[in-house]
Amino acid sequence: MQGDFYSYTITASKAILVLLSVAILIRCLRSMLREKYDLETWAYIRYGKERLPVQHWEVIIGRAPDSDVCIPEREVARTHAVLRRDDLGTWRINDVFSRGGVWVNNIFVDDDGAEVKDGDTLNLNGICVRFTDLSMEKRERLESKRSGVGRRYSPALTLLMLTVFQLFLLLQHSFYADPEYLPDIALAFGSLIVMEWSCFNAMRIINRSGFEIETLAFYLCSLGMSVAASSTPEDLYKQILLTLAGLVLFLLCGWWQRSLHRTASARILVALSALLLLGINVVASDVVLGARNWLEFWGFSFQPSELVKVAYVYVGAATLDRLFRRNNLYVFIAFSAICVMALALIGDFGTALVFFVCFLVISFMRSGSIATIMLAVTGAGLAGFLAVSARPYIAQRFASWGHVWEDIYDKGFQQTRAMSAAAAGGLFGKGAGNGWLKNIFAANTDLVFGVVCEEQGLLIACLMVAAVILLACFAVRSARTGRSAYYGIAACAAMSILLTQVALNVFGSMDILPFTGVTFPFVSRGGSSLLSCWMMMAFLKSADNRREASFAVRPGEKIRSIGDREAIREEREERKAQKKQEKKRRKGAAK
Q1: Among 187, 213, 226, 394, which one has the highest count of C-beta atoms within 10 angstroms of its own C-beta?
Q2: How many domains is the chain partitioned into structurally?
Q3: For 461-497, what is each residue's pLDDT tens digit?
């Protein structure tokens, strides 16, 4: 009788987990993608009787229909000028190599650009338009008319569903876990619930109602906590601390990106730090299974390439002051080449492929040049051929691709076990902690899709993938509506990394793609990966331009007065002058 009760309880919990997962994803999908919301308006360009809104901080003015501000005159080039706004509300215009040139109040705009103020006349090769800046009061009035987030789909109710989902996961573990570790598992899920509700309440205190990104991240973390509880319950305290550290980094990164001036000014330091970290990895790490991508300090090990991913996205998106300059694209290509070369020396082929996909996304969004992308693809193909020739273990992985069942005890050992376990799990799985794949080497990292399929079922595993796809779709939508190109590029680049990791992890473990040993975001066990995934979410959160949705965006960018703007601008100019004088003094002292 007691056995029947356990059997019915487990069967019911499996169905409830699937229903809750579907409900959570549908509610997030409708709130993130189905609800219509208005763009911010920062200024207007008056062209004849028309008043064209300026709805981003970097807008393209041209004749092309896809220009941000379209002026359909033959004299105007398809891409004629770039109009940009900084954190202080100052607008500048630059010519984008047009034949006719740009004038502001009859003064020619050179390569350094020119400041544009309210009421100025812009001359685009003989076509005159007038620029109208919006005062703080008008912006606040327009902001109040924008539809808010979380009105139709309460984020609190969605988070409550997630909490019930986590409790049912804990219930399943209580049936199959070793009694010795059951208190640790309960503490782990309890800590996760406390973290998510604390984060939610903190957002409510600062009047932020958008919580879908965090909800999906915590949903994936719940499955990751279940995998950790099943495979390595003795390390659950570490997993709790890493999740907390990731959440703190998410909040800090979001706060840092509130100022675009601060973000752009730190890009060189971030790039140098990333290269230094990779250099240390190349020199100091030990070879493990053909690759040396781990560093150990004082008993703690971490994977530098995971943190470099965040730096790579940051550097690639942060060059805003010369967004239209090709030289910056060439510098980024050089930075990318150095990173990939370091990864090749380390032997981390999977991460190098992830970096390359991210490079393509950033390059295309920065330049829009198909020729540049094709050149990069050709170079990557040559580099891949050289890597396969120089690294025999990479060639072996390609050789076993599609033939793993021919050698199930050697080259196909991991994938054949992952596919067998996934098939054994069926649609609803065997129950959390009741699988055997967790005992295979690297199952909770490289084969985690198979572990989830076995224990939670194919339906939950597919919904896990759908959660990442939903975040990627939201990044694409945010890129179109974001206030700055930095936020849109960073969000799409970050999600391209996570989406590529999902594809390589899932298809690699199922032998649809070569097995590269890449982790599944949030779900695979590993502190470095978990920290980098939370930091990636900060890029996506910063791109969320809905009203009262993102803590990483200052609502309305309320600059109190023109006097405040002038004071801050003068302070920045004074700092620049002091730095120049200091450089001259040092050069004189060196001579």
Answers
A1: 226
A2: 3
A3: 999 999 999 999 999 988 888 788 888 889 999 999 9
